[in-house]
Hints:
Elements: E1 6-9, E2 11-12, E3 24-25, H1 27-39, E4 43-44, H2 47-54, E5 64-71, H3 75-87, E6 92-95, H4 120-128, E7 132-135, H5 148-166, E8 172-174, H6 182-190, E9 195-200, E10 213-217, H7 224-231, H8 245-259
Pfam families: Polysacc_deac_1
Domain NodB homology: 63-270
Keywords: Signal
Amino acid sequence: MTPVPVFLYHSVSDDPPSWLAPYTVTPRTFREQLERIKDAGLSVVPLRRLVSAVRGGPPLPAGAAVLTFDDGYADFYWTVAPMLSESGLPATLYLTVGAIHPPGAQGAGSLLPPAPMLNWRQVNNLDALGVELGGHSQTHVPMDTVHGRRLTEEVVGCKKALEDALGHEVTSFSYPHGYSSPAVRRRVMQAGWTSATSVGNAFSSAADDPMRISRLMVRSDTPPQVFDDWTKGRGAPVAPFRERAATRAWRTYRRLRAAVGHPVGGPPKC
């Protein structure tokens, strides 16, 4: 299986909130990483091309890579989008719908701690510029700890809100924290999402699961050598692979904590 690096970013900023800092790269680092991708001879393709290949469509070009961003921080509009436009690179931005706010107001419908987030006017502008927008749930809850009406609202409500605002279908989903389960993936697919990304800290491939596409998370402390290895298809496993026993055990523990009203926070995991 040819490894396909699907890079996962969160914030690109020189001054992020302290809680977000571990998942933030500076604009200078981000620009350098785009140059490293280019120097490695990778072709950045839209996520939909990877999804098409996974579903048996046209094969990807040699050395394909994908750029994705989670949550919907305001710096995507002011910092990331101009860099991508300058370089002619496509990307997918997954939005936590409850964190998006009207211009001049603040969002209050998500579990994310305070941070500068996009407003709906900016979201529509990004859509007009050709950025692929996807859903990242309604509130950023770990999806595998909710069920029934709450799960439906997170999956279906998120899709409806985005499509009502943008005026067209939205088909790409991303699991908050990378957490999912077979039941969650079935519900996401039933809602009409045709692809979904996790974390995995692994390469994707043309044989990957379209409802659990693996990504490589780029953090503030990702060493340049590790990033270079990723651009060369080294240093991480290649999906698909069986879910780890540790992942299942961690899910069970988090469900129990959520059931007694003491949910577990922490960094994204697969």
